[in-house]
Amino acid sequence: MLKLSGLSLRRGPRVLFREVSLAVHAGWRVGLTGANGTGKSSLFALLRGELSADEGRCEWPSEWVIATVAQETSATDRSALDHVLDGDAELRALESDLTRAQAEGDGTRIGRLHERLDAVDAWRAQSRAARLLHGLGFSEADLSRPVSDFSGGWRMRLNLAQALMCRSDLLLLDEPTNHLDLDAVLWLEQWLGSYPGTLLLVSHDRAFLDAVVDHVAHIERQSITLYTGNYSSFERQRAEALAQQQALFERQQSEIAHMERFVARFRAKATKARQAQSRIKALERMTQVAPAHADSPFRFTFPPPGRLPNPLLQLADVVAGYPGHVVLERVNVAMRPGDRIGLLGPNGAGKSTLIRVLAGERTPIAGAREPATDLATGYFAQHQLEQLDPQSSPLLHLQRLDPRATEQSIRDFLGGFGFAGDMALAPVAPFSGGEKARLVLAILVWQRPNLLLLDEPTNHLDLEMRLALELALQEYEGALVVVSHDRHLLESVCDELWIVSGGGVAPFDGDLEDYRQWLMRRDPDRTAMEPAGDGVPDRRTQRREAAEARRRLKPLRDACARLESRHDELAAEKARIEARLAEPDIYDENSKPELQTLLARQGELVRELEAVENEWMEALLKLEG
Q1: Does the keyword field hold Cytoplasm (predicted)?
Q2: What's the pTM value of the predicted model, to 2 decimals?
C-alpha cells in the first residue's frame, strides 16, 4: 500500500500538510480533490521524488513502478509511436540488452532475454502503443510523424499515451482530460476502468471522477480526509458534514431553492423527451451538490442582454474550412434567444470551425453569415487567454471596456470570480491558466452578450468555478453554443445536442450515453483495450484462476466490507457527538447529564474505532498478501 505517516510538507514559508496520515491500498482508484494551491501537485511531486517531506514518512513497496505524465516534451525527430513505446522502460532496456547480446554472440543471454521479452508481451508492444494513440485521437498517419510536428496540446496527449504504456503499479494523473476532446475522454475512462494498479487522479471533471474513482482524498486545512465512494458520494458526505455548520446552512438552502426553481421551470418547458429527461436528472442531482460547495468563493450571474433580436444569427448554405480543405458544407442554422446547444462530434470534424464561423472569426468559403443588427457575441476560446494584456490588472481590463464604471462596482464584480483584494490590482502575467480563464469569463459576462459561444470553457477551471459557471449559464437569457468534454456541464446547461460529422451539422436525437454508443458503432477499434500486464496467460486458465481466487478471498473480502461499514458507522456517530459538543448550550448547568453521557460515549467510540481500525487494517493486509 501507499502510506503517509505523520507527514508534514512546506513550500517556502507555507505549510501544505501538517501531520497527515493516509493509507491507499493496492488497486484503489483515488480522486485527489481540493481548492487550487492546497497541495495536490506538491503531493504528486513528493511521490515522484522531486520533494522531500519536512516531517513524517511517505512509503510504498520498493518494487512498485510509478508512471506519471511528463509536463514537457522536447521537439525531437523521434516518431510518435517510438515516443509512446519509450514509456515501457523495461521493454526498452531488454531491447537494448538483446542488441548487445546479439552483437557479442552470447547465446545463453539471448535465450534469457527472449524469455523475458515473451513475459512482457514485447511482440505486441507496437500494437498496444498504436491502439493507445488511436484511442487518444491520433490517426494512422500520425504514428510515424516526428514529435516536433505536433502542437503543445497534442504533445500532452503523446505524454499521456507514454504514461499509459508503462506497465505500472501506481499511476499518477494530474488533469489528464485538459487537452482531450469528449471522444478521447470517454476512451480514457474505459481504459482506466481496466487498469489493474493503484491510481491517484487529480481532475475537475465530475463525470470523469464519478466513472473512474472508488475513493476521494479531499485536501482541506492542511489535512487529507479519505472518503469511500465516487465523487458524487463524496459530495453527499461532505454536504452532510457542512450542514452541521449553522453559518453555512442558510446559504445552502438558498442554493438548493435556486436549483429547484430552475428544475421546475425547465420541466414545464421541456419538449425533447430523451434529452429533456437526461437534463432534468442532471439538475436534480445538482440539488444534492449545492451544499457541498456552499463555501465556494465564486458567485456571479449573467446580467440580461440589452437587446434580444430573433433570430440573433443565421448561417445560410455555409461552406467553411481552410484554403484547399473544406471542413463543413451546406450548413443552415439559426440561433434564437433561449437556445442552449451542445456540439458533439469526432475530433477534427469541425466543431471549433463552426464556432469560429458563428463568432465571425472565420469567413465562410461560400454561403452567408447573417447577424442581427443588435447581435452582441461573447466568444470564449483558449487562444483568448494569451490575448490578455500581461502587464494590466483585472481591474484595468474592465475599466478599458467601461470607463464610466466605478472602481468599487468593478471590484465587487471581480470578487465573484475570485479576484478579491490585491488580486484585482495585480498584473495578469504571473496568473495561472485557471486564473486567466476566470478573467476572460469575467470580461465576457461584463459585456452582456446575447449570443454566448464557449469552446472548452472549463479547461483549467477547478470544480468550484465550474459549478458557479453552470449555475450562471442556467439563468442566462441569450443563446448559448458550447463545445466541451465536461459531460456534467453539457447535461446541466444544454437543451439540444447537435452533431458535427461528415461535413454536416444536424440535431442529435439522444443523450450523451447515446453518443457514446454512436462513437462505438462508428469506430469499434477505439473501444478501450486492456492495460498491459506483465504477461499474457491463456484466457481459460486466467478465468479459472480468477474464479478460484474469488472463492478463496471471499471470506476476507466480506470481513473487510463488514469492518469498513462498522468503522463508518462509528465515525459518523463520533462526528455527531463532536458536533453536539461544539454547541455552547451543552455546557449549561441544565445540560450537565447529557454532557456527561456524551463525553462517556465519546471515549467509548475512540476505543472502539481504534480496535475496529486495527482489525480492518489486519484484514486488508491479509487480503493484499
Answers
A1: no
A2: 0.67
